């Protein structure tokens, strides 16, 4: 069985010469839910953008045994469901149905299968009655659920989320955490919300200044106050 995500000695510098990632290596197994934490500028977002080929650095990135390169991009982007911090970056159609159907249409699926994928994806996020709603009239929590449905409709192998709890009120946050807990997908989530990380993710990666400085059980890393303080993090209250 292939690893869901395999990164080996990944290094990336931006055009201005700033090294955003330096010799990062880790493996995520099928079904794992892993959190990636670190201070601003640690390289988390840069790393995420390598997972579907938006950025390409030195080293090796594989998704489900497929190396990420120009030849595999279409397959990789079908396997990796990417949910950005702001759902407005992903919701741009007149209706919720159109947003969720966009990926299956891009994949060239027939209309009956597109309808089935949309219905299944909205049901998975508890939004089955929202097909005809206008995406931009929804609450932040509702938009985030729809954004997840837009990637679930492509039947991905891996779900990547960037700061998924940002901008949510306490009720929406609790509901959203319950949703992610129920999704049976390999998951890599970048977050500053340490309570969310502690509650949902058995494994945690710590990035700082472009380097992977810790990789282990969340419970153990969260109990190391010296480690957290050294990398600009705090144990949740």
Helix and strand arrangement:
Layout: E1 5-13, E2 19-28, E3 33-37, H1 44-50, E4 58-63, E5 66-67, H2 73-79, E6 80-83, H3 96-106, H4 111-124, H5 140-152, E7 158-162, H6 170-182, E8 186-190, H7 194-200, E9 203-208, E10 211-217, H8 218-222, H9 225-230
Parallel strand pairs: 3-8, 3-9, 6-7, 7-8
Antiparallel strand pairs: 1-2, 1-4, 4-5, 9-10
Helix pairs in contact: 3-4, 3-5, 4-5, 5-6
Number of helices: 9
Distance between the termini: 39 Å
- The global form is globular
Strands of the largest sheet, in order across it? 6-7-8-3-9-10
Percent strand: 15-25%
In total, the number of strands is: 10
Helix content: 25-40%
Q: Quickly give the structural class.
A: alpha/beta
**What is the H-and-E element order?**
EEEHEEHEHHHEHEHEEHH
Low-confidence stretches: none
What is the typical, i.e. mean, pLDDT? 93
Main pleated sheet: 6 strands, mixed
- Rg: 18 Å
Brief summary:
With 237 residues, the protein is an alpha/beta fold.
3D structure, described in words:
35% of the residues lie in helices and 25% in strands. With 237 residues, it is an alpha/beta fold. The strands form two sheets. Strands 6-7-8-3-9-10 form a six-stranded mixed beta sheet, with helices on both faces. α6 (170-182) links the parallel β7 (158-162) and β8 (186-190). α3 crosses α4 (111-124). It is globular. The relative contact order is 0.18.
List keywords for this structure.
237 residues, alpha/beta, 9 helices, 35% helix
């Amino acid at each position: 069985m292939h690893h869901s995500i395999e990164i080996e000695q990944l290094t990336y510098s931006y055009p201005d010469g700033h090294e955003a990632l330096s010799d990062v290596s880790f493996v995520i197994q099928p079904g794992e839910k892993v959190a990636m934490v670190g201070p601003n500028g640690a390289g988390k977002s840069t790393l995420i953008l390598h997972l579907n080929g938006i950025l390409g650095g030195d080293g090796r990135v594989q998704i489900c045994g497929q190396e990420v390169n120009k030849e595999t991009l279409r397959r990789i982007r079908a396997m990796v469901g990417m949910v950005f911090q702001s759902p407005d970056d992903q919701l741009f159609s007149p209706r919720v149905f159109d947003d969720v159907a966009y990926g299956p249409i891009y994949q060239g699926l027939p209309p009956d299968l597109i309808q089935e994928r949309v219905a299944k994806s909205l049901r998975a996020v508890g939004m089955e009655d929202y097909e005809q709603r206008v995406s931009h009239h929804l609450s932040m929590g509702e938009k985030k659920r729809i954004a997840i449905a837009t990637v679930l409709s492509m039947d991905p192998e891996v779900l990547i989320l960037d700061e998924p709890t940002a901008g949510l009120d306490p009720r929406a946050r609790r509901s959203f955490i319950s949703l992610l807990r129920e999704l049976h997908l390999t998951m890599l989530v970048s977050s500053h919300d340490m309570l969310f990380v502690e509650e949902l993710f058995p494994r945690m990666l710590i990035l700082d200044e472009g380097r992977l400085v810790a990789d282990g059980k969340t419970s153990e890393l969260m109990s190391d106050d010296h480690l957290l303080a050294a990398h600009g993090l705090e144990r949740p209250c």
